[in-house]
Design a protein that fits this description.
By secondary structure, the chain is an alpha/beta fold. It is built from eleven helices and 15 strands.
Amino acid sequence: MTLDRFSSMQIFVRIVQLGSFTAAANEMAMTQSAVSKKVAALEDALAAKLLHRSSRKVVLTEVGSNYFEHCLSILAELEEAESQASEYTLKPKGLLKVNVPLSFGQLHVMPHLPKFMKMYPDIQLDLTLLDRRTDIITEGVDVAIRIGELNDSSLVARKLGITRRALVASPEYLKQQGMPTSLEELKQHNCLVNSHHANIDTWHFYYQEKEVTVQVNGSMRANTGYALKDWAIADMGITILPTWLIADELNNGRLVEVLSDYVPTVFPINALYPQKHYMPLKVRCFEKFFRDIFASEPEVCG
């Protein structure tokens, strides 16, 4: 099989994954007409139609769907062979696209990246910090860090640590509204919820080794812990936050724990990458680096 055939297969795969000739052309720094010609040449060589193309979307034919699966397998084997060959030099290299949550990334990923880059100078890093979930396959992400339970079986997950959380409020809010003495009393309070989580109005706790839940409500919600922390400090209500985000505030008394016998469920911290037959060396180095880092940080893995 020629290198040109491999190139055409790569283009075809990215068109399917991105759902667009234009998006694939932009990602590969090619013109749209060049991408179209590659696919047309591939279809001519196979004597089969692979894609139906409309103004809005790209749809695989039955032959195209079968060919797509084979392409994924072939390209994965090629990448694995190249990765194994490069590992003999023990120098991970190339572009590493990383996606992490905003608050966690700013506090526990970004500060360590200069050290990582000094250890692996042949890697080029592309970091994205977002609190919304992204499709890492479509966006070509090599590795993502996610906090919470996972439901995407098409991704490989490696556990890096855990996130402990606490139910907190400001002393002034509790002075004005009263300290709740049971989960039921939370229903009478303004609860600040994270809109990024599933079932955002249901809070889960462990109490005396049993899981318990409470339905809460409030006037404010946000998709980032930074906003919830600031609102809690501003005496706006009660919220649940990761202990790594509020360690300083708990120590200086700007926030205090509420119902400390009720422990919010612990969230895992995972490294995710697309399901392949192997983990590229650059990804393996990134994962090991941060697993070691997090193991030394009690707020993350404590």
